[in-house]
Structures are given as structure tokens and as C-alpha cells.
Amino acid sequence: MLFYSTNNRNHTADLRTAVLKGLAPDKGLYMPESIPTLPASFWDELPGKSMGEIGFEVLKHFFCPDIPEDKFKAMVEDAFNFPVPVVKVNERILSLELFHGPTLAFKDVGARFLARVMSYFANFGGRPINVLAATSGDTGSAVANGFLGVENVYVHVLYPKGLVSKLQELQFTTLGQNITAYEVSGVFDDCQRMVKEAFMDKGLNEEKILTSANSINLARFLPQSVYYFHALAQIPREEWKNVVVSVPSGNFGDITAGLIAWKMGMPVKRFVAAVNANRVFTDYLQSGEYKPAPSIATIANAMDVGDPSNFARVSELFGGSATEMSKLISSYSYSDEEIATTIKEVKEQTGYTCDPHGAVGYAALRDHMEEGELGLFLETAHPAKFIDTVEKYTGDKVEIPARLQKFMDGVKQSVAITGNYRNLNLR
């Protein structure tokens, strides 16, 4: 399959080029040239399949035969080797728990898959591959741990100083080996800008192989579509048409993956893009005008994005029409106070513990579901990753899983830099 730039449909690239470049030369994001409709047999067999089996059946349309099917099947099953359960919170709201992977965040799904695809392509080149990852929290840990020890691949994690949780920071600053963490004076948007500027430096890209592990990379966001199918496999089929999927949204890679699943035939009723105080998308659906804004720091920090990169992909799927988009997607914004209240109320009323991002997803369902609908929100990270916030508002202790504790015992290693991509130590 070929992949085209969101800035110019006539600019196409093969899979290897699209994955290794991340961004198209015209600054556009790569999109699949076609999105297949899955056959009726897929839906009939879905309830009995594992996430690895589902992943192969879905993703082979985009990645094969560029990657041989036998090798690809092994990659997928290895990447998706942890549970992603649907958990009942109340009678009509379910949680899709995406925090059972190695770094206890949803990005383990995309990052582990990307690492295996990148490793496959790295074996052909000889030259080292530099993976650039801007993070507002969980991307850094998922990417760093997914790529740790991968030969000939070097990961450079850029994160805003003082704006990620301590646990998140320790997950990517204590690893060493082929992982370098850069503590940037600024906000997440500055980190993301540096990554984009590095990609657009023609001379640098002739000298080095640069690619991205953010959701701008198609091999990061496409595998995230798989857990939407996997969620349906755990829900009674007669309820599928009633499902409203609420996605805590920052850079909009996650909801883009859900929309790809919808394009492939996933029979859900609608989507909700649930956001914190960074309400650029909410305002867009209301006004029809996309107006990026400086990011605002919140307690749901992984969603602190004022100019979501994947808006271009979402727009592309709907022909650039806010009106068409609004037929399937709604968006609601929540303040820190509202997020905190939701964390507290959900715990008191149901016994379920939300992290701040999952709380935003839950709140959007609680406040805006219609009669007969079944809500599914994405619980994107383990509450322990935001332990201070969660314990403050629930009043309960949060148990720290052993996988997180090992990072807490590590020694932070990071490089302090200002907002200039030329300060990165690329290979």
C-alpha cells in the first residue's frame, strides 16, 4: 500500500519511507491511500479472537506484503501480548483499560508495535535510525521502553521541564542504553515544534535518518485502532450499535485510530473527543474555524496540547468539513476542578478509580449520553502514574505496581536544553 500526504494527495510514499520519515516532505502527515471495509466474516468471528489475532486481520491490509505475512503475524502477536479488558463501572458505562502493558499506559500498544516495525526496517539500512519523540507524559515512557535495546535505533525523548508527573519522568530518564531524555525549557508544544523542525531540516535529514515515534507516525497510531475492535469483542453484539466511545484527547492520535476503525466498518453509534481546558477541537466543532492556541497546563497533563498534530488526519477523513465531522463526533471540555470532582465521585459512587485522563472521558459520557446508549471510555493510564492527584481527590491510597516501583528506584539521567533541535545529540 502507498501512503499520501495530508497536504497533497499526489505526494505518496511506500511503507518503509512513510515509517522512517514520519512526516512527508511537504510537512503533511501520511495517510493510507485506501481504507478497506472488513468483511462480514470478520465481525462474525470477532468475539472469539484474541487481540493479537484481531490485530493481524486488521493491520495486514496496511503493512503487508511490504512486511511478509508470517513475520508480520509474529510481530503483532508479540506486541499485543498483554490484556486490554473492558470493565463495568456502572450499568451503562464501561471502561476500556489500556494500562496493563509494560509502562501502564495506552501508548504501549502503538509503541511496542512501532518498535518491531522499525527494527524490521533497521535491519536493511546499516545507518543508525534516530527516533524523535516529544512527550507530554506517557509517549516518552512507552516509546523508550518499547525501543530499549533495539539495535541500531536511538531514541531521543523531549519533554517539558516540570510538566510531566514524577513517575512518568522516571520511566524514560532512568533507562540509559540507546535512550536519551532531553528536559526542555518550555511546554509540550515547544517539544513537538522542535521535532517537526528537525524533520523539515533538509540538510540534517540528508546527513541522518530521522523518524518519529509520536502519533504523527502512521505505524504508531494505526495499531491503536486494534483495541477498539478488541473492545467490541467483549461487548454483546446486540449492543454494538448503541456504543458511544469517549476518547480522552490531546494530540488526537487515539481518536484518529478509532475513526480508522469506524471507516473499516466498526458499527458503533458515535464518538466523543473529551478534552481538558485545551479546547481547540471543541471550539472548532462549534465555529467551523480551527484556531490553535498555546497549551494550558492541567492535572490531565498528557492532554495539554494546543495544536493537535492529528487534526489534519481527522479533517482528512471528513473532507475538511466540520459539519460532517459533527455528525459522528462531539467534543466537551472539562476544567481541573471538574476533573477532580469526577475522580472523587466515580470512586465514591462506583468504587472505580480513574486517572485524570480517564476521568475526562467518563465525565463526557456521564453528562452527555442519551437514552439507550452504552458508554465506553478509554482509561488511558494506571492511576498510580498520577498518584498525588488521584490520592488527593479520592482520599484513598493507590497501590503502586511493581513495574512502576522499579522506575522509582532508578537514577534520573537527562540533558537540559532550550527549544532548539540542533541541541539534540543525533547519531
- Count the beta strands: 14
Low-confidence stretches: none
Task: Supply the number of helical segments.
Answer: 19
What is the CATH architecture descriptor of the domain at 82-105 and 221-404? 3-Layer(aba) Sandwich
Q: Might you state the CATH topology name of the domain at 82-105 and 221-404?
A: Rossmann fold
Describe this structure as you would to a colleague.
- By secondary structure, this protein is of the alpha/beta class.
- The protein has a domain at 82-105 and 221-404: Rossmann fold, CATH 3.40.50.1100.
- 42% of the residues lie in helices and 17% in strands.
- The chain has helices at 15-21, 40-45, 51-63, 69-79, 107-125, 138-147, 166-173, 188-200, 202-207, 218-221, 226-233, 253-263, 280-287, 311-317, 322-326, 336-350, 356-368, 387-394, 402-408, and strands spanning 3-5, 8-13, 30-32, 86-90, 93-97, 129-134, 153-160, 179-184, 209-212, 243-248, 270-275, 329-333, 374-379, 415-417.
- Strands 4-5-13-10-11-12 form a six-stranded mixed sheet, sandwiched between helices. Strands 9-6-7-8-14 form a five-stranded parallel sheet, sandwiched between helices.
- Strand 10, helix 12 (253-263) and strand 11 form a beta-alpha-beta unit.
- The longest helix has 19 residues, at 107-125.
- The chain is globular, with a radius of gyration of 20 Å.
- It starts with a strand and ends in a 10-residue tail after the last strand.
- The model has no long low-confidence stretch (mean pLDDT 94).
